[in-house]
TrEMBL record:
<protein>
    <recommendedName>
        <fullName>5-deoxy-glucuronate isomerase</fullName>
        <ecNumber>5.3.1.30</ecNumber>
    </recommendedName>
</protein>
<dbReference type="GO" id="GO:0019310">
    <property type="term" value="P:inositol catabolic process"/>
</dbReference>
<dbReference type="GO" id="GO:0102482">
    <property type="term" value="F:5-deoxy-D-glucuronate isomerase activity"/>
</dbReference>
<dbReference type="InterPro" id="IPR021120">
    <property type="entry name" value="KduI/IolB_isomerase"/>
</dbReference>
<dbReference type="InterPro" id="IPR011051">
    <property type="entry name" value="RmlC_Cupin_sf"/>
</dbReference>
<dbReference type="InterPro" id="IPR014710">
    <property type="entry name" value="RmlC-like_jellyroll"/>
</dbReference>
<keyword id="KW-0413">Isomerase</keyword>
<dbReference type="Pfam" id="PF04962">
    <property type="entry name" value="KduI"/>
</dbReference>
<dbReference type="InterPro" id="IPR024203">
    <property type="entry name" value="Deoxy-glucuronate_isom_IolB"/>
</dbReference>
<dbReference type="GO" id="GO:0008880">
    <property type="term" value="F:glucuronate isomerase activity"/>
</dbReference>
């Protein structure tokens, strides 16, 4: 299996992650990502340490408490494929959180270095920017959970729904150079769900010089590391594909460049 694919693990207890990515395990500096599958009554308690955190309720209902704030009975969707925006909670560094599952909960924990510039807050579905990108078979549906226009120190968080037979993260684009204003350096994780579950998504990760060039068949519940390069995704006919993106780097700006060979497609897509 490719080293870019991270598969879920058997969990020993409800508060152990089923999937875990750390800067150390990924071989990079900024992004950490975990997924938890919690049963009703489970409580997940963590200190944030030097990282800011975005807790994304992928599915289920929960109570969330931080050092100074608390929110009760948040969450509305039971599955990401309901395609409604999620409830999320932003927690700064040098804070703590406890999440109590009221139903079965799938929780994504997104982490990156914090600077203490922002208070803990609820990100309700009404706070999430909803947009449609692309046309025809490149059309996909976006939920901007924590975009660069909203307060955070490092994290950028977005989820994408790709209909069957469609492409997303397309035309192929990259953000692997710290060369603003032309391009920003951002590490990125993709966490996938596929419906029906026996399906797969396809993702290619490649660089201009092809020193990295991998075609990945990604199963439900797996994640992909994108340390550099272009990274388009396709959903095979018959299967809906969801992914949650987490990005972070030295500057909290999403500035990308399309693959020059395929940049013309973006121009064609303009109305």
């Amino acid at each position: 299996m490719s080293k870019l694919i991270v598969s879920p693990q058997q969990q020993a207890a409800g508060t152990d992650p089923v999937l875990s990515i750390t800067p150390e395990s990924a071989g990079w500096e900024y992004v950490g990502f975990e997924v938890y599958q919690l049963n009703p009554g489970d409580k997940l308690s963590r200190e944030t340490g030097g990282n800011e955190v975005c807790l994304v309720l992928l599915g289920g209902l929960a109570n969330v408490t931080t050092a100074k704030e608390s929110w009760s009975n948040i969450g509305q969707r039971m599955s990401v494929f309901e395609q409604t925006p999620p409830y999320s909670v932003y927690v700064p560094n040098d804070d703590r959180y406890e999440l109590e599952a009221l139903t079965k909960v799938e929780l994504a924990v997104c982490e990156a270095p914090g600077k203490g510039n922002h208070a803990a807050r609820l990100i309700a579905p009404s706070d999430v920017g909803v947009e449609v990108r692309g046309t025809g078979t490149t059309q996909r549906f976006i939920h901007n959970i924590l975009p660069e226009q909203e307060p955070a120190d490092s994290l950028l968080v977005v989820e994408v729904f790709t209909p069957e037979g469609h492409w997303s993260s397309y035309p192929p684009h990259k953000h692997d150079r710290d060369a603003l204003p032309e391009e920003s350096f951002l590490e990125e994780t993709y966490y996938f769900h596929v419906q029906p579950e026996q399906g797969f998504a396809m993702q290619r990760v490649y660089t201009d010089d092809r020193s990295l060039d991998e075609n990945l068949a990604v199963k439900d519940g797996e994640a992909v590391l994108v340390p550099k390069g272009y990274h388009p995704v396709s959903a095979p006919p018959g299967y809906q594909v969801y992914y949650l993106n987490v990005m972070a780097g030295p500057h909290r700006v999403w500035k990308f460049n399309n693959d020059p060979d395929h940049a013309w497609i973006a121009t064609r897509q303009q109305p």
